Structure to design on (310 residues):
């Protein structure tokens, strides 16, 4: 594996489906929903900041919530069997785009596969490295841009889990990423990624209402509540998401951290056209990480594409 490298600017990080990574799994509870913006003029999505895609290396929205994100997602295992099966099918080495804190990469390394994970968030990568410290696992983490990754060749499998691909802000970014992966895969290698299916019911949640997403044990051992608000721009296919993490201090005071992300959701035909344009074939599309058949109302879109032999 390559040694860890200084972080380069660009797209990366955890997928999050227009919410942040796991937001599309399970229905958000809305019984206590409240519109915190009701008395404010509706802002235009085009004027919202772009915290994820930036040439400023200090601009890492995950730096504010990396420990919270890790605590919330460390127990998420629903997709691991999928990636283990794909690794068994394609062989290693495995490249994970937007590896975050290493949840999937470390699980594959535990299964004996040689894995390299890249991300643009040094805060998340620091957690990934800490998670494998002192363990003799065949995994390495480095900072890099999935649109321009060019370190090494001969990967059998490239994966992009849990909506990470939605950090790409344009069709050009998607094409660049798929072309980058195509270059580093060996012939017969697989590209697999998991993104949310933008159904009408899902997009209806882009109404700027604050909804409860989850409650989990935070990094301080305290119960932490995660709330999310979406602002949808259907013409640009973007969702500006605001995340609120609340917990009680030892003194009984509410503590809060926030983070915001702009994500761009993808339609199935756009993804298929991009894969075809960048040289992939034998496309498989599923409706869940259990590889259920894809239906128009499926929650997820799982794509598996093959780099053909020359």
């Amino acid at each position: 594996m390559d040694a860890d490298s200084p972080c380069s600017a660009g797209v990366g990080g955890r997928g999050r489906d227009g919410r942040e990574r796991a937001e599309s799994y399970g229905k958000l509870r809305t019984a206590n929903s409240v519109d915190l913006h009701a008395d404010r003029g509706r802002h235009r999505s085009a004027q919202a900041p772009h915290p994820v895609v930036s040439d400023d290396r200090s601009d890492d929205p995950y730096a504010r919530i990396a420990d919270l994100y890790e605590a919330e997602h460390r127990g998420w295992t629903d997709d691991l069997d999928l990636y283990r099966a794909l690794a068994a099918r394609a062989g290693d080495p495995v490249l994970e785009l937007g590896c975050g804190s290493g949840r999937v990469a470390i699980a594959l390394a535990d299964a004996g596969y040689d894995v390299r994970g890249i991300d643009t968030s040094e805060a998340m990568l620091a957690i990934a490295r800490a998670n494998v410290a002192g363990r003799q696992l065949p995994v390495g983490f480095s900072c890099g841009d999935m649109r321009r990754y060019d370190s090494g060749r001969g990967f059998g499998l490239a994966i992009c889990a849990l909506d990470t691909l939605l950090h790409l802000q344009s069709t050009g970014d998607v094409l660049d990423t798929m072309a980058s992966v195509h270059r580093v895969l060996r012939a017969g290698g697989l590209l697999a990624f998991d993104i949310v299916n933008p159904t009408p019911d899902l997009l209806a949640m882009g109404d700027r209402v604050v909804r409860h997403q989850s409650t989990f044990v935070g990094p301080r051992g305290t119960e932490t509540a995660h709330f999310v608000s979406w602002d949808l721009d259907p013409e640009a296919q973007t969702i500006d998401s605001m995340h609120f993490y609340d917990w009680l201090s030892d003194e009984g005071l509410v503590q809060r951290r926030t983070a915001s992300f702009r994500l761009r959701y993808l339609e199935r035909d756009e993804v298929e056209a991009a894969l075809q344009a960048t040289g992939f074939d034998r496309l498989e599309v599923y409706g869940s990480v259990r590889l259920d058949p894809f239906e128009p109302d499926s929650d997820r879109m799982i794509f598996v594409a093959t780099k053909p032999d020359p």
Q: What stands out?
A: The mean pLDDT is 84.
